[in-house]
Write a structure and sequence with these properties.
The protein is α+β, with helices and mostly antiparallel strands and 173 residues long. It has one domain: Peptide Deformylase (Alpha-Beta Complex), CATH 3.90.45. Helices cover 31% and strands 29% of the residues. It has three helices and seven strands, in the order αβββββββαα. The radius of gyration is 16 Å and the shape is globular.
């Protein structure tokens, strides 16, 4: 099942997500549908708030072909270096906007997979960027919150228009 994505301006994107208490068939089905939605929309990651679910979980595949697919539940991320890298990011919930964001180059992520198993990984470069971007969604942070003040000014009109359109669509539902 392909989910409808929540767009910039939707209040759920600004709510902190709650822990997943039990990994049951329903959660596994949601994760499978999130993977399907991510591939359908040509994304490399998708967090639960982006589909309107206030849970601490996301899916990611930085290979784009299934080889790096992760289903991540209740993650904890720890930077492993003070070295930062600039990466031009975009977001399925903020369509049409791409800006550079600085993030730690290397991180450790600890999480539960869809079977409830503990997983610990060290990621560097693009994979580290992807998991940090998705992790931010769980804390109600969007990549546009992390861009430089000048870049923010450059996209402010687009963001206002997106928010206006989203709120208009929400009131029509």
């Amino acid at each position: 099942m392909i989910y409808e994505l929540k767009k910039y301006g939707d209040p759920i994107l600004r709510e902190k997500s709650t822990e997943v208490e039990v990994i049951d068939e329903k959660i596994q089905e949601v994760l499978d549908n999130m993977v399907e939605t991510m591939y359908e929309t040509k994304g490399v990651g998708l967090a639960a708030p982006q589909i309107g679910l206030n849970k601490r979980m996301f899916v990611a595949d930085w290979s784009g072909e299934g080889e790096a697919l992760r289903k991540v539940i209740n993650p904890v991320i720890t930077p492993l270096t003070e070295e930062l890298i600039d990466w031009e990011e975009g977001c399925l919930s903020v369509p049409g906007i791409y800006k550079k964001v600085e993030r730690p180059k290397k991180v450790r992520i600890e999480y539960l997979n869809e079977k409830g198993e503990n997983v610990v990984e060290e990621l560097e470069g693009f994979p580290a960027i992807v998991v940090q971007h998705e992790f931010d969604h769980l804390d109600a942070i969007l990549f546009v919150d992390r861009v430089s003040p000048m870049a923010k000014r450059m996209i402010s009109k687009k963001l206002q228009a997106l928010k206006k359109e989203t709120l208009k669509n929400l009131t029509e539902e």
